[in-house]
């Protein structure tokens, strides 16, 4: 070895061999450096527009389908499903039009690992939400401890096929749509303006609870939203929060379906 020159036999100085994609060989694909996607061109106004669309479609359904005799089962089901699906679908279209698509912009990339994490956050969150629900019932009373959806279906009885449809909407469809709007679109809009994941968690949790427009249930909804938001924080993606949200909705959806068939009291 010549004094003053580095020893080429030193393994610390040997340049790594590049793999076929230009990244150092030996690294798993998920750890290899990839080019970051361009920044999306949608923000808070996109979220505001989606919320306005949700409220406007809800109002239109109520205006045209609810008569003086009160809502029918069909009217309530349409009011429960169409605005939510329309809002989520618009959010996805916005990411395709002004961004990189829902997989990149919203973190809507499914994996078995995220489903498992979502189940953990969902069932773990029940340890928080069930005691909070008991406190809520004790404070407002059993007669007042109902949801806006439960009030809309009050006095309506349907057969099992329709009750099953309502169960699927409340337990599975609504969580997907709500997570796309709040922990997806709103989350991405907030972080675009420089907020870190914890600030995004706080903002989306509060707005999720307030946007249900159920004043007395807002504190309970804040508690319910915590494990759902944490699933988004710790995975960095949307599916775990969707699964956690679905776990949270399972029991209320089942109770609502049973009530609609006359199996249990609704209120």
Key features?
about 270 residues; mainly alpha; 9 helices; CAAX_protease; CAAX prenyl protease 2/Lysostaphin resistance protein A-like domain-containing protein; endopeptidase activity; transmembrane helix; transmembrane
Which structural class should the secondary elements be placed in? Answer: mainly alpha
Strand residues, percent: under 5%
Report mean pLDDT, rounded to a whole number: 86
- End-to-end distance: 87 Å
Oligomeric state of the chains present here: single chain
As residue ranges, the low-confidence spans are 8-27
The biggest sheet amounts to:
none
Total strands:
0
Tertiary shape = globular
Number of DSSP helices?
9
SSE order in H/E notation?
HHHHHHHHH
Query: What Rg, in angstroms, do the CA atoms define?
Result: 24 Å
Instruction: Provide the domain count.
Output: 1
What share of the residues lie within helices?
A: 55-70%
InterPro entries: CAAX_protease, Rce1/LyrA-like_dom
Domain CAAX prenyl protease 2/Lysostaphin resistance protein A-like: 163-251
Pfam families: Rce1-like
Protein name: CAAX prenyl protease 2/Lysostaphin resistance protein A-like domain-containing protein
Topology, pairings included?
Elements: H1 44-65, H2 73-98, H3 102-105, H4 112-140, H5 148-152, H6 160-192, H7 197-210, H8 218-235, H9 239-260
Helix pairs in contact: 1-2, 1-6, 2-6, 4-8, 4-9, 6-7, 6-9, 7-8, 8-9
């Amino acid at each position: 070895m010549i004094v003053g020159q580095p020893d080429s036999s030193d393994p610390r100085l040997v340049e790594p061999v590049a793999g076929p994609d230009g990244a150092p060989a030996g690294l798993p694909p998920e750890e290899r450096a990839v080019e970051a996607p361009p920044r999306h061109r949608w923000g808070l106004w996109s979220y505001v527009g989606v919320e306005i669309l949700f409220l406007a479609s809800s109002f239109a359904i109520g205006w045209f389908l609810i008569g003086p005799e009160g809502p029918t089962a069909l009217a309530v089901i349409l009011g429960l499903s169409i605005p939510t699906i329309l809002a989520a679908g618009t959010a996805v279209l916005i990411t395709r039009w002004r961004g990189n698509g829902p997989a990149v912009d919203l973190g809507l990339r499914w994996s078995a690992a995220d489903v498992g994490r979502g189940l953990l956050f969902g069932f773990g969150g029940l340890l928080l939400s069930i005691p909070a629900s008991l406190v809520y019932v004790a404070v407002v009373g059993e007669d007042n401890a109902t949801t806006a959806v439960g009030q809309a279906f009050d006095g309506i009885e349907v057969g099992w096929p329709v009750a099953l449809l309502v169960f699927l909407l409340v337990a599975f469809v609504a969580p997907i749509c709500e997570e796309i709007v709040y922990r997806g679109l709103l989350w991405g809009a907030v972080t675009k303006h420089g907020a870190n994941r914890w600030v995004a968690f706080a903002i989306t949790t509060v707005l999720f609870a307030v946007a249900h427009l159920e004043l007395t249930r807002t504190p309970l909804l804040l508690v319910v939203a915590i494990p759902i938001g944490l699933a988004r924080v710790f995975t960095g993606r949307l599916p775990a929060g969707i699964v956690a949200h679905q776990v949270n909705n399972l029991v209320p959806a089942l109770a609502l379906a049973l009530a609609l068939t006359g199996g249990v009291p609704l209120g």
